[in-house]
Amino acid sequence: MKKESLNKYPLFSGLAVLVLLALCLMACTTEMVLAEAAPTNRFEVSADRISAETHSYAAANNRSPQDVLNWLTAQKDSCAMMAGQHIGHGYGTTAGYNDLVLELERQSGRRMGLVEADYFDWDYAEDVVAFNQPLKEHWNAGGLVGLSWSAPNPWTGGDAWDQSNANLNQLLDPNSAAGQQWLRQLDFAASGLADLQDAGVVVLFRPLHEMNGDWFWWGANIHFNDSAPYERLWRHMHQYFTQTKGLDNLLWVYAASPYAGQSWKKPVDFYYPGGDVVDIVALDVYDDNVSADGYEELLALGKPFAFAEIGPLNSRDGSYDNLFMLQQMLSRYPEAVYFLTWHGWMENGVYQHLPVAHNQNASELMNHECVTTLDEIDLGSSPSSGGGAQNDRLLIPYAVPAPVVDGALDEIWGNVTPYPIQQQILGSQGAGDLAAQYRAVYDRTSVYLLVEVQDDVLQNDSADDWWDDDGIEVYIDADLSGGGNYDGQNDYLLGFRLNDGQPRIGGASADLPAGVQLGQTAFNGGYRMEIKIPLAVMGYDAANAGRFGFDIHINDDDDGNGRDGKLSWFATTDNSWQRPDAFGPALLMDKAVYLPAVR
Given the DSSP bridges, would you call strands 305-311 and 336-341 parallel, antiparallel or unpaired? Predict the structure, then answer.
């Protein structure tokens, strides 16, 4: 944001720095308060709390940048979005970590997955170890670490907003005063990054951000119609850090400001320096309604997308709804892999509530099924939402056009991810006896399921006891109310028996809804069912952002004497017929599957 509307970095005076340095050298029980701290009725915590509490996590995070990038990349195809928090700069990072991360964990039971700080206004290389300490602690606890760098003006020594004398071309001239100062600034930042590298920490490094806006010395105001100087500066910095300084612990984050045709901005990809020197693309979004113009343009660059900064523009009194922000991101920008809120600060005597911890529904956000927290990060595997295995939640893309419900394998199904149905919850059939998978899509009116079953013996002989024959059970908890009993309103068990055109319901289910359709086809060694269920049944509305409880089971009768076995997608025991809290999570995504028109 522009400095006049988002003064994110209150400066330390020289006296304040000396005082804070003295405090840091005192006994570890000395209390510290973030320089841009919350009002006094908020948390004041001791500086030693980090070390005391992070050791509750057993495993250290010993992984490479590629491991981190692979894990983040895998999240874009699910509803998973890692939660992040900026904790400040200078000596304030320790207090920021305690207040905005650990205190929120105490309240919510969950810790931020990503923690970021900034090398802004931190010109004392000998103190960088103290600055980096909370980042190391967070990494060792199993989390991810980011660093932004709001570099001072190399011409004047002013802050990042000082555009005096700026000319990016001069910075690459080692014989110029500005070029020599720039190299000193690079060396300082490299010393901090090297300290983190020595500790095994991978860093999501976000330098020279919001370059397409007109408020920083490296921004659009300097070379408005010429992207080459910024691109050269970025590429030189990349080369200097990775080759000259030997830093191999960095993932490079290109973070632009949203663009909606403003005359004082350039498009988000105008200054993009190239895919070989960027690992993650991002937007810094401050908007009460989470408007992220430029999302599609950045996605087109083929990199994982993130909200590198996000928060309200006007509602900064603590009333902003974290869940509203999350729902907007999930529904409108589903491929985002993480989001990060800024720390708060005092402005004209009023505290600016930016952090998750200082706004409404903080605990609810941290415990949301689509939010990934520290305990769910597993860099040894590719996560789905919440850090589980890929098949632990159903992700439903939008279909254009929708399939015809006739049991035939429409062409569009070939573009949809299949989910295996392989949990053996009843009986002991082998793989040659029963196997199944399903796919799901939706359109403006309905959800469509395609279920393919391999079954060596097909049976339909149990009259009204439809569950004792070969067939499918679909479970829906439309409002995500869960619980140990069906609510009689929108908890459903829908049954679809082989060679039976009439959809059925379980005994505890709500009434069979209108509009449910079934198409089926038997073939040698199995059968296929195509099912249409109205969206009204699925509970698709703004309140739950397209989420609902879901499971699907396959019944198997081999001998005509009742059910012999059962497979499920999500459940681990056969009690879904009476417990909605046994269902798995499902999400209707903005991501669409298109079948090209025939020309």
Answer: parallel
